Predict the 3D structure of the following.
Amino acid sequence: MANIIFENVAKKYGDTSIIKELNFEIKAHELMVLVGPSGCGKSTTLRMIAGLEDITHGELRIKDRIVNKVEPKDRDVAMVFQSYALYPHMTVGENIAFGLRIRKLNAEKINELVSEAAEVLGLTDLLDRKPKALSGGQRQRVALGRALVRKPSVFLFDEPLSNLDAELRVQMRAEIARLQKRLNTTAVYVTHDQVEAMTLGDRIAVMNKGEIMQVGAPLDLYEKPKNVFVAGFLGTPPMNLLNVRVEDNQIKNGVFSMAIPSAWQAALENFENKKLILGVRPEHITGANHGDSSGIYCKGQIEIVETLGHEVLIHVSMNEGKEKLVAKLPAHDIPKMGDNIKLELDVNAIHLFDAETEERIIN
């Protein structure tokens, strides 16, 4: 049972801090996704698990063993990289078997392991082909096979689908998920693509500037983001974030005002005359033909219309362009660019964040 524990793990290059004291656990048998923007430290974190980056301070445990000074080959991990890194002069079978030959396994055992991996990955009929005769998806399967034959306790994936087109990414995403569940092993998957993170991970760790912003199940992070960064990062399109103020028992900005619901009174009692950030996801905004004092209603002009087939995204400019909203509307009634529109924000789906700390207050 391979769990991975970070205790005050940090990474510096000289005086530059890359990773700032990580403290979290990747549980045995789960698929943990590290997600965040470029430069957030997710690949460096993965490489520290693999032993390809030294740890500046702190302790990293794999299967309850401190591995700070353990060589990569002795950590019982296998890594799949963004580039396939296949040897062009070798066949598929030879590429998959290469690491086993380096470890000097006997030929019979190598053939057994290669055949087993090829069957799992649907490569049995391709074992005699060279990489140049394979599609991108097939090459990525070969890279997976090379890791699979080692039967490691931990699989590490460093943006393995970045070089594939959209259709292949969806296909390979499903194959990786099925493979991880079938093997019942621990896996850590790095990506900048939050769709991959949401669809693949048992849990997600959202990273920014070398720190973990929030760790949790995909829907927990989506529905209850801990702070403004997580709220704005997860979701396509991301959550709408509006500057508001608490004033005279109301929440106001230049577009709307609403009475503070009784359920919010306690949480907001110390925020009178203070700035907040109101968050609402596009799917929680609807067209409105009427309004009342208990809801949030606003008017604006449609700047962009994105027709997606099953739904329509509209980008709305309000208050002379000072505020913007993106809303998801049903596809049967497509508005036009330049139209004026009235929108209703679902009060029950509102998130409120402290503008100073950017931490969640409501919902």
